[in-house]
Amino acid sequence: MADRLEPIGRIGSGLRRPECVLVSRNDEVFVSDARGGVSRLEANGTSVHLPCPGGTTNGVAQDRDGSLILAGIDTGQVHRLHPDGYATLVIERFEGAPLGAANFVHFDPEGGLWITVSTRTQPRSRAIAAPIPDGYVLKQTRDGFKLMAQGLCFANEIRFAPDMSSAYLAESARGRVLRMAVLADGSLGPPAPFGPDPLFPGAVVDGLAFDVEGGLWVTEVTRNAIYRIDADGQAQCWFEDPKAEVMDFPASLAFAGPDRRTVLVGSIRMDCLIEFRSPVAGAAMWHHG
C-alpha cells in the first residue's frame, strides 16, 4: 500500500469554517458552518447554506431519515436539523449544568447517538494550552443521555470499530488517540492509548476516520498532517504540510465517491476542502444503510 498521499484539488469555495465534513449515502457533501447550520456543496462548486440555531457548528452527523445532528461548540447546544429545515433542540444541559463545548456528534454502527464535549472550561482554548481533564462523552438512551467517559483532556472526534468492539477517541490536548472497549452492557471500558502516545511531541490530534482494512486515519493540526494507525497500533505519516502551503489546520476527513477512495479534508482556517485519493477505501458509515 502506498504510504504517501498527494493532494489532487480543492472542493468548494467561500466556506465558513468547514471544520467537519460529512458525506451522505447519496454522496452529498455537508460541512459545518460558522453561521450556524451547515453548508451543502453543489456539483458546480457552489454551496447552499442550511441555517440552524446553535451558533457556530462544529460536529455534524446524519441520521438514517436524512436529518442532521449539529454540535454548537460556542453555545453548548446540540440540534437536529430535519430535512424540511425545521430544527429541534437535542440537548443543552447535562446533570443540571450547561453542556460545555459540544465538539462532535456521531452515530455508532448500531445507530446510537454519541456526543463529545471537549471541556467546560472558559475560554475553551485554556484546555488545549494546558490539558484540563474535564472533557466527557455522552450517549443518548431511551432514558435520556448517559455519561460514558469522563476525565478527558479536550475530547474531540469519536469513532467505533465496525463490529462495535471498541471506541476510539481523539484526545486533542494529549496528542493521542484513546481506545475503550465496548462492554457487554454497552458501557465503555477504561481508556488506553492506541498508537503512539503522543502521536509525536507537541501533537494535537483532531479528526478520525476508519478505512475498510481497519486503519484509523488521524488529522493533526500543528504540522497540518494526516496519519494512519494500523490495527496493530503502528502509525505512519501519509501527508504533512508544516508551512500550510496546501492545507491549514486539518480538522476532519471523510471518504467520498462511489468507491469511497476520495478523501475530503475539512479545516477551521480554510474556505474550501482539500481533496486526496486514497489507496484504500473508507469504511461505510451507519447512515449509508
Topology, please?
Blueprint: E1 7-11, E2 21-23, E3 29-32, E4 38-41, E5 47-50, E6 57-62, E7 68-72, E8 77-81, E9 87-91, E10 93-94, E11 97-98, E12 102-107, E13 113-117, H1 126-129, E14 135-141, E15 144-152, E16 155-160, E17 166-171, E18 176-181, E19 192-194, E20 205-210, E21 216-220, E22 225-229, E23 235-240, E24 250-256, E25 262-267, E26 273-277
What report would you give on this structure?
This protein has a four-stranded antiparallel sheet with strand order 1-26-25-24, with no helix packed on it. It starts with 6 loop residues before the first strand and ends in a 12-residue tail after the last strand. The protein contains one helix and 26 strands. The protein is globular and about 45 Å long. It has a single domain, classed as TolB, C-terminal domain (Neuraminidase, 6 Propeller). The protein has one helix at 126-129; strands at 7-11, 21-23, 29-32, 38-41, 47-50, 57-62, 68-72, 77-81, 87-91, 93-94, 97-98, 102-107, 113-117, 135-141, 144-152, 155-160, 166-171, 176-181, 192-194, 205-210, 216-220, 225-229, 235-240, 250-256, 262-267, 273-277. The model has no long low-confidence stretch (mean pLDDT 96).
